[in-house]
Design goal:
By secondary structure, this protein is mainly alpha-helical. It has 20 helices and 2 strands. The protein has a domain of 219 residues. It is a multi-pass membrane protein.
Amino acid sequence: MTLWLMAGLLFTPLAWAVLTLLAGFRRGRVVTWLGIAIQVLVSLALWAVVVRDGGFQYPLGGWQAPLGIELRVDGLAVTFVLLTALVAAASGLHAGFYLDPDKQWHRYFWPLFWFLWAGLNVVWLGNDLFNLYVGLELISLSAVGLVALGGQSEALRAALRYLMAALLGSLAYLLGVALFYGEFGSLSLSGIASALGQDSSGDGTGFALVLMLFGLALKTALFPMHRWLPPAHGIARSPVSALLSALVVKGSFYIAARLWLELGAPLGSLALAQLLGLLGGMAVFWGGWQALRQRKLKQVVAYSSVAQIGYLFLLFPLTWNTTEAAALQAQQAMTLQVISHALAKAAMFLSAGNLIMSVGSNRVNALAGVSHFLPFSLFSFGLAGVSLMGLPPTGGFAAKWLFLQASLATGQWWWLVVLLGGGLLSAAYVFRVYRASFVEDSNIDHFFHPARRLEIIPMILALLSLGLGLMAEPVLSVMALTFANGEGT
């Protein structure tokens, strides 16, 4: 059964990419919806297997590392696989109704969508540094193509900027991989961690870790390396923006977190951990302030992503040279923050797309009177914003509460300023959008009402983000299968 599950997650998306490439938009939409159903079922089945039997390592073709490619299937991996299935399914369904089937370039959305999904699954399950690089490149190239979809000059400029940042990040990561291979003769992450455990000196490979973390931070759009993100996320189609913000930037951060948790103890340093945390804190304030100043709705949401990404990098200082209990709290906070942000930001971008379609403009002040026409989309936007603020009982609140506890347990009280200040800024830019939408406008005949199904999809995601805080314990119990020991099983 495991063989079929692995094949379903890694090879089925590639097959579907080819099938949809040969079809037009309308036929590709039907094929995609069938593939989405298969992917969701396979993801649920793998999650059930890990919950029942625990995590495991799976060698492709029966070849063990370092000769073969080894997959790592544990609690954290299957959580991300299931999250990807949920967000990608919602974005794919929304895109099927939202995108214009008569526009020639939109037919390429489906193959790029499936290549992106395949790359994400490779990253979640990978345990080999080079194959993680392959997954990253598949994600980056697919994402660049999705940003450029449509061919407008602004979209092409944003896509090229994104491509340059992605290539630079990939180069830094690949140089680090080469250094690790030269030192250990293996690219297995578990094998390198084991070798470092026997010889904690690292023999200069600390520089390799710094290089890889720099490249991954660039791909994740950590401040001040974030300038490529707002144009790309802001100009892309709303279903594309949802995928980029909810999943794509999480792929590079996921690898950075894996590297730190496996190799940070022998190769990292207090200065590196605090630097990454400091940049994360600056991202929270800078991204929130810029979101408050933006005149275009999608730019508000895009800069919000810059801010929310910053919280994730608190993982590094809160897990460095600390107690096991405090480190576990930080790891749990990171997981809940990723899930909550993915659900909330996908809901927010999809809702923003509905609002823009209705008023015919991307400007925030053009939303005057829209509350009468699209209450569901506006409500979904607000629910997602509540999670970003960190109000109970949302998943965002649970994540920030765990970060707060880890900060106090480690004596790093200064991160509380980031948690509180970021929440206030999130409230400010969400309420700004609401204030604009509730301004009365006597000329409301120009509003277009999208299909109701376009409003239901982001509503479901927003409700899931809202209820994540109530369901945090089952999620964290599955994640504990990851951190029980270094092997994942």
